[in-house]
Amino acid sequence: MASKVLDHFLQENLDDLKNRGLYNMIDPLESPNGPVIKIDGKELINLSSNNYLGLATDPRLIDAAVEATRKYGVGAGAVRTINGTLKLHEELERKLAEFKHTEAAIAYQSGFNCNMAAISAVMDKNDAILSDELNHASIIDGCRLSKAKIIRFNHSDMDDLRAKAKEAKESGQYKKIMVITDGVFSMDGDIAKLPEIVEIAEEFDLITYVDDAHGSGVLGNGAGTVKHFGLSDKIDFQIGTLSKAIGVVGGYVAGKKELIDWLKVRSRPFLFSTALPPGDVAACIKAIDILMNSTELQERLWNNGNYLKKGLKELGFDIGESETPITPCIIGEEKLTQTFSKRLYEEGVYAKAIVFPTVPRGTGRVRNMPTAAHTKEMLDRALAIYEKVGKEMGILK
Ligand code: PMP
User: Fold this and answer.
1) Which positions fall inside the Aminotransferase class I/classII large domain (predicted)?
2) Hey, which of 154, 174, 185, 387 has its CA 20 to 30 A from 275?
């Protein structure tokens, strides 16, 4: 018999979320997640994917995945430390290290998994973690799992970080102290102040950890935010995902050989969860080869990002302070933001509303993720729809 307590809990909480407009509706795609998508038979210009370089549908990656799948099958068959490690996994890890300019790398099944794995493998209850207040949910969960003391600092506020690092260090309470930040913050498109973070880390002997999920493939000629600032030998943990610019699935840590050796013997998802499938691994290897040999896709991404930003700004929208192709269009009030996104959808643009609690109250936005795969015509069509809906709703004069 089903549990009454569970039934009651689910009913009450689901109703509450629905009443507060916080229940996520899912729109399943009938097409690849490319620059134009199909939902319910309707074609939409897609400004919501993390497929920044269009690699998710690149024929070179598809061929690599198909070939490896035919050769090795669809699954790895075991966790990495039993016998789920193919030569391909090790090739991917060597390529990732080269790509990130580090000694070594370790791959995980997802970026989320990677943060859970890496933080808790090194930090424990005797330690403290200084964490940017806007860090991704997987970092927050990884920190919690470690049982270290979590000290949040105000978003990209270097005075606050310095004061909190000083206090933690001088308290003498902690064996190790780590500072963690996203490389690029995905809600506003701003870049972490890594040179200042490294300076503070050197002053107070902090371990440095950068999750560059949104910077890899985008900044630093593709190598990411750390490379963008020329800090490859100064950051202990460089985290990335294989699911955004790389276009496939997976996550990784790049760093010193001893760190990677430690993660291979101590990080639990590596030890206890089945390895990435061969086809995905082969596609990731191909993507990294492409990124290391050409910056053409990044150039297209940045050109498209700048074009969309300029267009939205000229129309009169508030596009915030983004420093990357991620372009928020800040509408403000939550309900208005959701209606705006819904009207864009009806007119043919898929751009999700992001509202409280993901962003602070009153700063609801429609977030645009232009990619290398968009054409100027698609972006012009999107801008025309933005103008129409913006005027109709009185957001634009
Ligand atoms: N870190 C950050 C900063 C992210 O934005 C995301 C994805 N939203 C992740 C980690 C998780 O990556 P994945 O989707 O590969 O699990």
Assistant:
1) 43-383
2) 185
Cα–Cα distance for residue pair 225/229, rounded to 1 Å: 6
Q: Is 186 a catalytic residue?
A: yes
Active-site position among 100, 136, 149, 214? 214
Pairing of strands 42-46, 36-39: antiparallel
Residues with CB under 6 A from ligand 1: 110-112, 115, 136, 138, 182, 186, 211, 213-214, 241, 243, 251
Measure 392 CA to ligand 1 centroid, in angstroms.
35
Q: How would you classify the pairing of strands 104-108 and 327-332?
A: unpaired
Give the pLDDT confidence score for residue 101 in this predicted structure. 95
Tell me how far apart the alpha carbons of residues 318 and 330 are, in angstroms, rounded to a whole number: 5
**Could you report the per-residue pLDDT of 251-285, keeping only the tens digit for each?**
999 999 999 999 999 999 999 999 999 999 999 99
Q: Which residues pair with 132 in a beta bridge?
A: 153
> How much is the pLDDT for 31?
97
228 is catalytic: no
CA of 213 relative to ligand 1 center, distance in Å:
6
pLDDT tops 90 at residue 20: no
Query: Distance between CA 212 and CA 114 in Å, rounded?
Result: 12
The residue among 366, 327, 324, 311 whose CA lies nearest residue 343 is 366
ipTM: 0.99
As annotated, the residues of the chain forming the CATH 3.90.1150.10 domain(s) are 20-49+295-393
Which residue in the list 244, 309, 352, 374 is annotated as catalytic? 244
Output the CATH code of domain 59-293.
3.40.640.10
Which overall architecture, per CATH, does domain 20-49+295-393 show? Alpha-Beta Complex (3.90)
Cα 138 from Cα 150, distance rounded (Å): 14
Could you tell me the distance, in angstroms and rounded to a whole number, from the CA of residue 110 to the centre of ligand 1? Answer: 8
